[in-house]
Amino acid sequence: MQRRSGSKQPAKVRRQRAIRPKTRKSPTGNVSTEHLPEQLDCLKRERDEAFEQLAATSEVLRVISNSPGELEPVFQAMLEQATRVCDAKFGILFRYEGGLFQPVASLDMPPAFADFITKQGAFAPQPGQLFGRLCQSKKVINVVDRATDPNPSPSVRYGGARSSIAVPMLKENELVGAFFIYRTEVRPFTDKQIELVKNFAAQAVIAIENTRLLNELRQRTDDLSESLEQQTATSEVLKIISSSPGELEPVFNAMLANATRICEATFGGLFLYEAPLFRTVAIHSKQSYDDYLRRNPLIDLRENPGTPLDRVANIKQVVHIPDLRTDQSYIGKNRFIVRLVEAVGTRTFVSVPMLKEGELIGAINMYREEVQPFTDKQIELVQNFAAQAVIAIENTRLLSELRESLQQQTATADVLKVVSGSPGQLEPVFRAMLENAVRICGAKFGMLHLSEGDGFRTVAMHDVPGVFAEKRAREPFFISPAGSPMGRLNWCRTSPPKPLSQLRTHGCSTSCASAPMISQSRWNSRLQRRRCCRSSQALPASLSRCSTPCCKMQYAFATPNSAISGCAKEMRCASAQLMARLQPSSIICATSRFTGPNQKQDLES
After folding, report:
1. Which of 177, 89, 96, 194 is nearest to 141 (CA)?
2. Which helix (H) or strand (E) holds 307?
3. Tens-place pLDDT, residues 409-453
4. CATH (domain of 578)
5. How many domains, in total, are found in the chain?
6. Which residues are bridge partners to 513 per DSSP?
7. Which of 152, 304, 350, 470 would suit a FRET pair with 376, their CA atoms being 20 to 30 Å apart?
8. Structural domain contains residue 1
9. How far apart (Å, rounded) are the C-alpha atoms in residues 531 and 567?
10. Helices (H), 86-174
11. Is the Cβ–Cβ distance between 519 and 581 less than 8 Å?
């Protein structure tokens, strides 16, 4: 056998056949299609139900997102969607709180059943009945035919209900409500429909909890905002107090403006109590009320018994009247209250007393034109402002006393300086004394007289009006009429006071105070200071001796309409109290009822 030598021709390559998948032979038997339409219809129904449930859930979620903190539209939307998807006739949604069922949403209820539910209102579940079984089991109750019950329920009697479901709303296994869905024919609810209503019930529980949390958050935010607003208002008032030492008017105005704004009142007023009168010192808003009180700043409780301010003065507590038209002071036709209601339009009223150690200092009044009672927080805020007002009044009093004391000490130092610098000279000493006395007393002018026999000689004058100064310079010696204050200083008689004709004619003086200078139980001179005031309300006053053994002096005040007299130890004005502490036989002061408390330390000096 001849061996094949290496040939240069390529060897033949065997071709591989492509692998093809084996084709299955179709069954030779006939295929049945008689159930195919039913299967398609079932799939379509399931698809449509799924789409419908999805659309219902989407609609409920949309309502929830558009109604934060509001449960009523959410409940109504859930009930509508649940009733529609379940192909039911009508439905009710109940809340369960405090052991009572309360209807909160309803849909398409028959009129008779709706009327029954409305009249019934909130009710407690009865053991053994549907609501009682729901509370006990906390599970879905599916009734195929309610008409078969031995004791038909109101839904059967008044609504014609047959098939129904009751789906509980549970929060941590606690019943908070329930869905009741009814049909008027016997047609049981499917499991899918029940699952859908259970889904709505869970969403309702979430909505209730979210609403509770949101309302709590809103309440906390409102409380913080209210607290911040109150603190801001208090800060503003304290700022004004610190920037206005000794001035009460801007403090009162700021307090009243802030209290009226924060309490949402229409207008307000601040009054100081000067028994038996309330004096208006600040008003905020309401032009008619403002005009009326500016014309009538004093409220006399003797003329207005039984009014709210009179009650505040008697009980020293807050007086809150939701509607002034129902108050006895309005029914009794009190002039002030009738005008406040009918002319100004006031309905709701609150008055908060300003108290210092149990004593009434004043009152802050708040008014509303609608019947809307003030809240406890608002009243508490006004009480806070009232306490601040009392503190401001006390601080102002202390500051005024401090200033007066400093002024008096400075004046005394000035006089002593002049005395030490002018040995043997009386004229500069008298001028210095007189100048300081007039300045501290806030008087217009003053004179110093030395006693000579039955009369007086003028030895010093300060800022005396020109005509009167010229007359006194021409006639330095004079004898005062017996009824005048200067005459009373000489203890001449006890007749009623006579007008100071020269002072009124030439000096325009209506208020006068005279203080004697005593040496060894006899008069050497007396210092007479006069306050110039053109006010027609003040007339000169004089003094007469008192027959009371314990007192050597009696005071008398004269005004255009009245005259008051009595023992000096019974006087209530600041000057009289000081005079009573001094030796009655050594000092007499003639003053008008409008002489201020600045003269206390002057008399001591």
Report:
1. 194
2. none
3. 888 888 788 888 877 788 888 888 888 888 877 788 888 888 887
4. 3.30.450
5. 3
6. 529
7. 304
8. no
9. 24
10. 111-120, 130-137, 154-159
11. no
**Antiparallel, parallel or unpaired: β 319-321 and 563-567:** unpaired
Last residue of a domain, one of 163, 198, 213: 213
Scored b (16 or more CB within 10 A) or e, 584-601 reads beebbbbbbebbeebbbb
What is the C-alpha separation between 490 and 496, in angstroms, rounded? 15
Name the pTM for this structure: 0.50
Query: Which whole-number Å values give the CA distances from 328 to 311, 324, 379, 524, 537, in the listed order?
Result: 12, 8, 22, 64, 36
Structure tokens at 366: 């708040």
Residue 65 has what pLDDT?
Answer: 60
Give the DSSP H/E element, type plus range, for residue 331.
Answer: helix 328-331
Q: What does the block give as tokens for 270?
A: 């601040």
Residue 351 structure tokens: 């008055």
DSSP string, 247-261: --HHHHHHHHHHHHH
Angle between the 36-66 and 191-243 helix axes, to the nearest 10 degrees? 10
Collapse the DSSP code of 12 into the 3-class scheme (helix H, G, I; strand E, B; otherwise coil) and give the result: coil
- Tell me, yes or no, whether 458 and 552 share the same domain: yes
Same domain, residue pair 346 and 455: no
- Asked whether residue 394 falls in the same domain as residue 448, the answer is no
Calculate ∠ Cα 48-52-55, nearest 5°: 140
In this structure, the answer to whether residues 337 and 371 fall within a common structural domain is yes
CA 515, CA 152: separation in Å to the nearest integer?
103
Half-sphere exposure of 581 (CA within 13 A, CB side): 10
Farthest-apart Cα atoms in the chain, separation: 192
- Going by their DSSP bridges, the two strands 445-452 and 174-182 should be labelled as unpaired
SS3 for 160-207 is CCCCEEEEEEEECCEEEEEEEEECCCCCCCCHHHHHHHHHHHHHHHHH
pLDDT the model gives residue 408: 80
The residue-averaged pLDDT of 312-323 equals 94
Whether 182 and 264 share a structural domain: no
**Is residue 269 assigned to a domain?**
yes
Residue 70 reports pLDDT greater than 60: yes
Count the residues in the chain.
Answer: 605
| Rounded Cα gap, residues 453 and 455, in angstroms | 6
Check whether residue 301 and residue 186 sit in a common domain: no
* Token pair of 93 as six digits: 């949604």
In a domain, 238, yes or no: no
- Domain range holding 53? 42-213
The whole-chain average pLDDT of the chain stands at 74
Asked if 65 and 181 sit in the same domain, the reply is yes
Evaluate whether 528 touches 448 at the Cβ level (below 8 Å): yes
Tokens of 261: 């704004």
CA 82 – CA 86 distance, rounded (Å): 6
Q: How many helical (H) and strand (E) elements, i.e. helices and strands, does the chain have?
A: 18, 19
Task: Tell me: do 171 and 206 sit in the same domain.
Answer: yes
User: Three-state DSSP class for 362?
Assistant: strand
Taking the CA atoms of residue 21, residue 27, residue 33 and residue 35 in that order, the dihedral angle to the nearest 10 degrees is: -90
Q: Are strands 563-567 and 554-558 parallel, antiparallel or unpaired?
A: antiparallel
Nearest C-alpha neighbor of 462 from the set 535, 531, 542, 539: 531
